[in-house]
From TrEMBL:
Gene3D superfamilies: Tetratricopeptide repeat domain (1.25.40.10), Winged helix-like DNA-binding domain superfamily/Winged helix DNA-binding domain (1.10.10.10). Belongs to the AfsR/DnrI/RedD regulatory family. The lineage of its organism: Bacteria, Bacillati, Actinomycetota, Actinomycetes, Streptosporangiales. This is BTAD domain-containing putative transcriptional regulator. Keywords: DNA-binding, TPR repeat. Residues 859-997 form the Bacterial transcriptional activator domain.
Length: 1003
């Protein structure tokens, strides 16, 4: 994910450097929405009192002048400097924040979403290739998307030339906007490295380039070079280790066309580079370079000697392409096994099976673990197990046998076979240890870690993943590294470490993307999506799950059930009942035939929750089945679902048993999310303890960072009958955040929120069942006026005669009694158009009086008054609460009825309360030394009450104390004029240092 897209940096000075088209300006506009910002181009300006100043296109400004400008700028003004090229002389600026291409580039899931939504490209594999070709460079992504709309379908190897060939928009953009600013020396370097794979300063020097570091640094900082995955695969104590980079492929395509090399020079360049790659053990790059240099014998030698190492380092695609380039008749068994393994890693499962089929009559351990792994990755564990068990192992143990046992253990884990999974994992570790093979040992520890999730041993789970990761890193096995990190993200999810899980999953996904590890990528995406969902970042999560679904569908894997579960959960949170049901049912349909319990159990549980209201019998059967099959961590959560189904059917004794058993399991597994879920279930079982249980559950979720659940529980607690004002206010704020995230509050403890929401502050508006009522919905204006009168009475019973006189002044009381009954009937039908509630649900009536039941509707003025009183009681601790209250006052009560006497009392109460809030905010700002904030609130008071003497004097005092004497003098002149206008002699100007009175009262 791009790291800076959601919020602006807080540094005093931010420097944004990237080539054209990286979205620098767009990102700044997104960051600065709502800020007072000035924009300047190609000049160093004189600044006023801006919050933020943006300076763009500064390459021509002398470094000394720019540095001096930054140093003399006011401390309160945040500076954002933007340039296509690095700006010298700023590195030593204190607190400087650097934003570069890596921060601005689009992540793969976002690229896929853009291509799908804006250009109609739904092919996930094509979206992946576009991300690879553009490295997420925003302008190149959009130019490529537009090109794909009009270009004919093209084979993968010809795609770069089709997108960025001469005459295309991408070619023109790169040539004129990207390459033009560079000096001739940098262009010569570009001309050479455009033909190579990974590049580094060492490679450039080996090719005869003197002092390449400055040019490479320039290309890296502007985004033409991007890091390769080998820096993550090689341990830093390896003497051959050095960071390597690659030219963005579409840029390389344009460079090769714009500044071509002769064939002889290109072959010589590639052979020289291949020799360096081999010495550095960069196998994929060596194979590709020798192949493109027409060195047939050379690339065959590298494949036979180091092909397996090349796959492990993340070059499966290069190894596979090289072997595919050979005629099938020239591929012996060794090369076929290597090709099949490369195809498996890159997700070409059908082709891998066809490749392995050529040797199926000689099924040894080496072929069996590779063949069985394909079945496992397609979520066909029984086919994998059948393959593994056909092998008769030789007496001599080896690496292939260790891999066979570990792969077999994973298939047993998938079907929940605890005993065999553990036994096979231990055998794999023992065999790998005797052979001293780090890659096989890493695989064995991964199997042991996954077994620990079934046996309920979180300590062993973490320890085995740690060992697996260390071994994979020692072996330089990037595919294993990405797999272990993706799995470790799952462990962190189970324990409730959502921010940590997200970081780990995104790191795994980035590794998997760069090395085409399709066996790992969608797993990492699913784990990242789950973390994002619970952190409240629903749209991002939906993107990742959708991307994972399309990848699994292309792979032909039944593991597509996993991202479907993620999407189903999101639909459920959003209240999209039918979409959630369909996704859960699809996940069950996919997982059931394969026997994959790791997907089937949560699918059955989710479906049970969705159906528990409309079909409790089916829900009970599904929940019972899930709980019966569940093992390890999934058992606690399945029991909780079974408990909810019992609650909704009225069987509280069964529900209590499920909650207690689930809580015990959750504590044993260190499963904080399940502990919180069990507490929520207890709240439903015992209403007397509901408030305490919900508070404890919210605190538990808060530790995990799951803002979605924290807000959900706070909203529910605020709706409990015994909630206090603070709980209700906090609950309303939480519910508002949930609505903003598109989340619907669903729980037996939280009955459907009031169907009616009424706005009275400023514009009068009534919303019924989420739809704003137009004037035509009222049928009668008198029914609408009746509601306004009842709102002004704030829930108090009001005599029918008094209401009738307000609606039909001066008319005979006998005649208007019937009219009032009709108006009441119309009002009830407007508020409850489907007549689902009792007659007195909204309107309480007796023979002599009528009232609106304010507990059954949401009324903004009532919420405002309650929240204001709460914030004022908090005193100096209430500043944040009061600021939120102030925002909710959007106008006077029923200001479109300015002359109706019945509205006056509530209008004056609301206005007076608002003034108390603003006075309190002004005083708190003064005490905090926040001059600008204090001035803002004092001016707001004077806007509403221009003849109120004390705010005038407070404003003069605050301006004087802040050294703003000219403004203070003008403020005093306005005060004196206002006092003279009402015949009051102005007081003397306040002396420096005089304090405003805490209550804002006059002298």
């Amino acid at each position: 994910m791009n790291r800076t897209a959601t919020s602006p940096p807080n540094a005093r000075c931010t420097l944004v450097i990237a080539a054209a088209g990286y979205g620098k300006t767009e990102t700044l506009h997104r960051w600065l929405r709502g800020h007072r910002a000035s924009w300047h181009s190609a000049v160093v300006p004189d600044l006023g009192d801006e919050d933020v100043a943006v300076l763009d296109d500064l390459a021509a400004v002398p470094a000394a002048e720019l540095r001096a400008f930054v140093e003399r700028a006011a401390p309160k003004t945040r500076l954002m400097l933007v340039s296509r090229l690095p700006l010298p002389g700023l590195a030593a600026v204190p607190g400087l924040r650097m934003i570069g291409p890596a921060d601005l580039a689009l992540p793969p899931a976002r690229v896929a979403a853009i291509l799908r939504e804006q250009y109609g490209v739904h092919d996930a594999n094509l979206a992946r290739r576009v991300h690879g070709l553009t490295a997420g460079w925003p302008a190149l992504v959009h130019l490529t998307g537009a090109r794909l709309v009009t270009a004919a379908p093209t084979p993968a190897e010809l795609l770069p030339a089709s997108i960025a060939g001469p005459g295309t928009a991408p070619f023109g953009f790169v040539e004129t906007e990207v390459l033009a600013p560079f000096e001739p020396g940098t262009r010569r370097l570009l001309r050479a490295i455009a033909h190579l794979g990974p590049v580094s300063a060492g490679l450039c020097r080996a090719l005869g380039v003197d002092s390449p570091e400055p040019a490479l640094d320039l290309l890296l900082r502007t985004g033409l070079l991007v890091p390769t995955h080998n820096t993550a695969a090689r341990p830093h104590d390896d003497p051959r280790w050095a960071p390597t980079y690659r030219l963005v492929p579409l840029v390389a395509e344009v460079v090769r066309t714009r500044w071509p090399l002769s064939e002889a020079k290109r072959h010589r360049l590639l052979r020289d580079a291949a020799g360096w790659y081999e010495r550095m053990r960069m196998i994929g790059a060596a194979v590709t370079a020798r192949r493109h240099a027409a060195d047939h014998s050379g690339f065959l030698r590298v494949l036979r000697e180091h092909g397996r190492e090349g796959i492990a380092e993340g070059s499966a695609a290069a190894v596979g392409d090289a072997i595919r380039s050979l005629p099938p008749a020239s591929r012996d068994r060794e090369l076929r096994l290597l090709l099949g393994q490369a195809l498996t890693v890159t997700g070409h499962y059908d082709e891998a099976l066809a490749t392995f089929a050529a040797d199926a009559d000689r099924l040894d351990a080496g072929l069996a673990w590779r063949l069985g792994t394909v079945h496992y990755l397609r979520a066909r564990p029984h086919a994998a197990i059948e393959t593994f068990e056909r092998v008769e192992l030789p007496e001599v143990e080896g690496v292939d046998e260790a891999m066979l046992h570990a792969s077999h253990a994973l298939a047993r884990w998938m079907i929940g076979d605890l005993a065999r999974s553990g036994e096979l994992s231990e055998r794999a570790l023992a065999v790998a240890g005797r052979g001293d093979d780090t890659a096989a040992a890493a695989m064995a520890h991964t199997a042991l870690a996954m077994h620990a999730t079934l046996s309920g041993d979180p300590v062993a789970n973490a320890e085995h993943y740690e060992r697996a990761l260390g071994l994979a890193e020692r072996a330089g096995d990037i595919v294993q590294i990405s797999r272990v990190r993706a799995n470790r993200a799952g462990l962190l999810l189970n324990e409730g470490g959502y921010p940590e899980a997200l970081a780990e999953a995104l790191a795994a996904a980035a590794l998997a993307e760069t090395c085409d590890a399709m066996a790992v990528l969608p797993v990492a995406l699913c784990n990242a999506g789950e973390a994002l969902t619970l952190l409240g970042r629903i749209e991002e999560a939906s993107d990742l799950f959708g991307y994972a679904v399309s990848l699994y569908q292309r792979l032909g894997s039944a593991k597509v059930a996993y991202p479907l579960l993620g999407l189903a959960d999101i639909h459920h949170w959003r209240g999209q009942h039918q979409l959630a049901r369909a996704a859960y049912e699809e996940a069950v349909r996919i997982a059931e035939p394969t026997g994959d319990l790791q997907a089937l159990v949560p699918a059955l549980s989710g479906l049970a929750l969705v159906l528990c209201r409309e079909d409790p019998g089916t829900a009970k059967r599904l929940a019972t089945r899930a709980a019966t099959m569940a093992t390890g961590r999934r058992a606690a959560r399945a029991l909780i679902v079974r408990g909810w189904v019992a609650v909704l059917s009225g069987d509280l004794e069964c529900a209590a048993g499920m909650a207690g058993e689930a809580a015990d399991l959750a504590r044993r597994h260190r499963d904080k999310p399940a502990v919180a879920q069990a507490l929520e279930l207890h709240a439903a079982i015992d209403p007397a303890q509901a408030a305490h249980a919900l508070a404890e559950a919210a605190t538990t979720w808060q530790v995990t960072g799951a803002t979605l659940h924290v807000d959900r529980l706070r909203a529910m607690r605020g709706r409990l009958p015994d909630s206090n004002a603070a709980d209700r206010i906090e609950g309303r704020a939480a519910a508002e955040r949930l609505r903003g995230a598109g989340i619907r509050l669903i729980s037996p403890l939280a009955p459907e929120p009031p169907q009616v929401s009424i706005s009275t502050l400023g514009r009068f508006e009534v919303v019924v069942n989420g739809v704003t009522l137009p004037p035509s919905a009222w049928q009668s204006r008198k029914a609408r006026d009746l509601l306004r009168i009842l709102l002004s009475r704030r829930g108090r019973m009001t005599g029918r005669e008094e209401i009738a006189e307000s609606l039909w002044p001066g008319e005979d009381s006998g005649r208007v009694g019937h009219r009032l009954s009709v108006a009441l009937s119309v009002l009830r039908s407007v508020l409850d158009p489907d007549r689902r509630a009792a007659t007195d649900h909204f309107i309480r009536a007796s023979p002599g009086a009528v009232a609106l039941d304010t507990s059954r509707v949401t009324i903004d003025v009532e919420d405002f008054l309650e929240e204001a009183e709460h914030g004022l009681r908090l005193g100096k601790h209430g500043r944040a609460v009061l600021a939120g209250v102030e925002r909710h006052y959007t106008g006077d009560f029923l200001e479109d009825e300015p002359y109706e006497e019945w509205a006056v009392a509530t209008r004056e109460l609301a206005r007076a309360t608002y003034l108390r809030v603003v006075r309190a905010l002004a005083q708190l700002a003064v005490e905090a030394g926040d001059v600008d904030e204090a001035i803002r609130w004092l001016l707001r008071i004077l806007d509403l009450s221009p003849y109120d003497e004390q705010p005038h004097l407070d404003l003069v005092r605050v301006l004087s104390d802040g050294g703003r004497h000219g403004e203070a003098r003008r403020a005093y002149q306005r005060y004196a004029a206002a006092m003279r206008a009402i015949g009051v002699a102005p007081s003397r100007p306040p002396a420096a240092g005089d304090r405003a009175r805490p209550d804002g009262a006059g002298p």
